[in-house]
Design a protein that fits this description.
This is DUF2931 family protein. The protein is mostly beta strands and about 220 residues long. The protein has 3 helices and 12 strands, in the order H-E-E-E-E-E-E-H-E-E-E-E-E-E-H.
Length: about 220
Amino acid sequence: MNKFKLLWVCGVFGLIAGCAKGSNGLPYEAWRLGLFAPNYMEVWIETADAVDVRDRVFKRAMSGTSAIQTPKNLKGNPRGWPSYPGWGKGKYVYGAAVRRLIYVRWQSLVEPQTYEAYIVIPTAIQQAMVKPEKAFCEFDGKWITDYRKGVTVGLAPGGIAKVWISGPCVSPIEVARVQGEVVKEGPSGGQTNGKYALPLEPETKAYIEKYGVPYGSW
């Protein structure tokens, strides 16, 4: 069996001790969770938790502000999702095996409203996250063996969560589009008397006042 085929077997069925780099059963050190929002559609992440295939829970794997762009002069376009969403703002989740569930609770500041969503990672996607792929990296001009070790979650008004997996040099794979639910207790579990985490940026406020929120585009 050649080296590449062995890596493929380890990746897909992997989680085999001899193929993994560490106790988490992955062929790489850790996977990354990142989040972003469409232009101007600011969010505050109260918590993003992860559950791996070993049923271990990683609380607050990410929280705070997400990646976002708020171009001046209202030149940004918040409608729809990018073809290549990038990795978003996030962290590596060390010690976790392949994830099977992600829970996100966030404040959609432009509405304002608080949502929560449960994102199930299908088995086929779990396998894709540990499957090696030969990829050409344009930034250094080299062929490498790459993995889709990044999970990116896009958060949009109306409680929409869109999910992809990707790697530094491999194209993203769409995982799911989830309709979140309104958190009845409001922001911060009702502990802030309905006050949201942050005021809107001037560019965001100006965009919303002129164009409104483009519901239905995500």
